[in-house]
Amino acid sequence: MKKDELFDLVSECATLEIFVAKAAKLIQNPIWIMDDAYQLVTCSKVPDAYIYLSFLQDTKLKRSFVNRLIERGLLNENGIQKPLRIFDTEYQRDVYVIDIFAKKKSIGKLTVAVENEISEEDVKLLADASSIYLRHQLTNHGSKREQAFTLLLQKDEESQSLGLQLLRETGYLVKGTYMLAYVDTTIANRITVLRSFLSEIQKSDVNLLGGIMNEQCYLLLASTKHIDLKQYPNIHVGYSMQFEKLHHLDGYARQAEYAACKAKGKEANFQNLIDSYLHSQLEKQLPLDTLVDLKIQKLIAYDRKYETKYYETLCMYVKSQYSKQKTAEGLYIHLNTVKYRLQQIEKLFDINFEKDEKLIRLAMLVHHV
What we know:
InterPro entries: CdaR-like_regulators, PucR_C-HTH_dom, PucR_C-HTH_sf. It comes from Solobacterium moorei. This is PucR family transcriptional regulator. By secondary structure, the chain is α+β, with helices and mostly antiparallel strands. Helices cover 47% and strands 16% of the residues. The chain has three domains: 137 residues, GAF domain (Beta-Lactamase, 2-Layer Sandwich); 109 residues, 2-Layer Sandwich (Alpha-Beta Plaits); 79 residues. The strands form two sheets. The chain has a five-stranded antiparallel β-sheet. Strands 7-8-6-9-10 form a five-stranded mixed β-sheet, sandwiched between helices. The N and C termini lie far apart (72 Å). 28% of the residues are buried.
């Protein structure tokens, strides 16, 4: 293929689909192009590329395809800059693979199945030409919703207001209870894996907003139902508190990030980690011991000296909303023991349970009770 031929082809083809169809006929080899999330963008019909793309119809096969690329080192951060010829056991044929670049960043992959010989130079020319179309396509596809979501995640109200306006213009009318999810993975080629996950999960719900911003992956869920992670063994998710208005998403994003960071399994809810979060934030500001009231400090010191359990009882009593029975059940002790300890706390330390509740709860927060 000569450069002049390619130039003429680009000049007469208005879309990537038309370009790929004509280029495949010209080189007499099947061609297909995938985006950076490994979703099919387009492929040739003559010669037929579909016979090589059965894995796209099956999530497990698709994941296997991505894993094969990872194992062969084809998903490095710099991308495949020169055509790489490999024998693919799945296809039982040599294929050329090369990344399609825009401003030195990979935006997709071009694959040519070698049914008829073709030079590396021709494959490189095809990738360069495909970049012209793919850049335009990716800039326009779904950009308005993604832009709206990005604006909603900003801290300033002006950006959030503009984000809401853009979202309405796209026809997004979902109302209800929302949660923000932060998605991450610990395996190599993190961004590629997250993009693939995001693309797959958004197919299941057209109203699912998501995006990768500053290499962080977020999803806006218009329900309280968690993502089914059974099919995604390498993904873990943190969930924010629930909310009803699309305001202060930056705060909910931080909640979700914290939950994902603290997740011991595949997922975690910020709601279950509030005390831990507040404790960590307070600790950054000032020495935590300075927040504990003197009366409670004396109570804790008394416990240490005489091996009593007054502080433990006090905390459980407040957490049980001043129910002596629930306190006894929570500590697995007799009700009379609870009554005695509470009397001693009032007598020895001059603590008024209701008036001093804020001081007690602050001490509980400091001591992570």
